[in-house]
Every structure is written in C-alpha cells, then in structure tokens.
Amino acid sequence: MEAVATLRSSRRPTVTPPRVVNGPTLLTRVARCGICGAGLTIRTGKGGRYSYYSCNAKVNAGAERCGCPHIREERLDSVVLAALHGQIFEPARLRLLLSEMLEASAEADERRARDLTQARLQKTQAETRLRNLYELVADGHASLKDPTFTTMLAETNGRVASLTATIDTLERQIGKRTTRVTPEMVDSFATLVRGRLHGEDPAVRKAYVALFVSEVAIGQEKIRISGSTRMIERAVGKTEPGLMGMVPIFDRKWCATQSIANRSRAAFPV
C-alpha cells in the first residue's frame, strides 16, 4: 500500500483527466499481476467511490497468496495512457521504434529502382540478340530446321518474356506509393493515435489501447507495459487503425517499464 500511496502523491491533473475515470474499464483482459501471473480484477472501496485494480489470486486467497499492491483504477489507467502518449507514440520516439521499418521501406524502394533499371537493360540486350538471330535466318546464315539454332531462339524469346514480366511487376510495386512508409506518415500516425488516446470517446480510447497493448503487468515496484511492434507497423498509414478490424500479432514487442515510486524513470527496449 506504500507504493500505491507514493503513486497517488505524484498525481497531476494534466495526466489524469476526469474522463479516464468515467469511461469503461480501460485495461480489461490486458492487466495482470507481475508477481503471480493472475489477472487483475476491479474492486471498489469507500462505499463504491473508488475503484482499484487488484490481483485476483490475492482477492480470493488473501494477502499471503500474493504481494501485488492494489492500485486505483484511474491512476493505473493514467500511467498507461501517459506511457503510450509520451514514450511510444511521441513522433520522435515512434520513428526510433519503427526505424527498421523505415529503413527497410526506403531500401526496398531503392532496390526496386535498381532492379528495374537492370531488368530494362537486360531486356534491351535480349531483344537485340533476338533481332540478330532473326536476321541470321533472313540472310540465310541460319536455318529454323537447325535444332541448336531453334533452341537458342527459344531461350532468347523466353528471356525477353521473363524480363517483361519482371519489369511489369517492379513497375506496379513502385507505383503503389501507399506501400512506402515515410517519416511523415509515422508522424501523422503518432498524432492520430495520441488524439484518440486522449479523446472524449472512452470506447474508442479503450479500442486503441486494446489494439496496441498486449499486457500491463503490475509488480511490487514497477509497472511493465508491452505490446506488438508488428501491430504498430501494420497500422501505420491507416486512416483509423483502431476501427479496421485488425487482428493483433504478438511477436516482436516494445515495452515501457514504469517505476511505481518514480514514474520519470522509463526504459523501452525493442
């Protein structure tokens, strides 16, 4: 309870808006005890005036079962929203988190451009060779009845057809500009998500948290918030990622670790 009291003393109105308290339970199915692994349940106190996240095992079996502290619902909600707002979806930090994706997208564009230039050159060479072969026939220097010559002709025709298909594919890929993720797209996405996380609609806020947060684990001194980096990558560039019916993929993870005693200390390895 000392940790809870310390957390309460750090309360700031700018971090804990009244709407956080009034909305539906924000962390349904993602909040768990970081000590015993049980899920967290909502309990009320002070005649129903306050709500707390509590370890379900501790509630059912008593304090000797688990030492996980009870945490006021609005305080834990505000910590999670503040971490998402300031540590994950802050534009500069999000660019860092998605740096591999941005680099891969830029490298893919450069690679396709190089491949397209090379394929066009090779097609020109193959077409020149094909014309030369037909000229040999026209000039009487080669015969279509010669199996060696006809094999060479067929291989060159196949080479031209293959390169034509490759060029068409590369041109289509390069033409799809929505596949190119830019830093500006990441910044716009960060602004969108931050607005939704602190918007007026509690249902939308909860949907966005559920989309990007896979787990909130409460320990004796720290709160660990984690989620799928791949989910963020998939959502970048979508108009309303939280309303697109996206299915979470839990593979590579980001995590933000908040100290209950000092929320200014944070780390988020990827």
State the secondary-structure class.
Answer: alpha+beta
Q: Tally of extended strands?
A: 8
How far is the N terminus from the C terminus? 31 Å
From the spread of the alpha carbons, the general shape counts as rod-shaped
Q: Would you kindly provide a written description of the structure presented here, covering whatever features stand out?
A:
With 270 residues, this protein is an alpha+beta fold. The protein folds into 2 domains: 2-98 and 186-267, no CATH class; 104-179. It has helices at residues 2-9, 18-22, 56-61, 73-88, 91-97, 99-138, 147-175, 183-197, 202-212, 229-235; strands at residues 31-33, 40-45, 50-55, 71-72, 215-218, 222-228, 253-259, 266-267. The strands form 2 sheets. A 5-stranded mixed β-sheet has the order 1-5-6-7-8. Strands 2-3-4 form a 3-stranded antiparallel β-sheet. A hairpin with a 4-residue loop joins strand 2 and strand 3. Helix 5 (91-97) crosses helix 8 (183-197) and helix 6 runs antiparallel to helix 7 (147-175). The longest helix is centred in the middle third of the chain and has 40 residues, at 99-138. The protein starts with a helix and ends with a strand. Residues 1-23, 242-252 and 261-270 have low confidence and may be disordered.
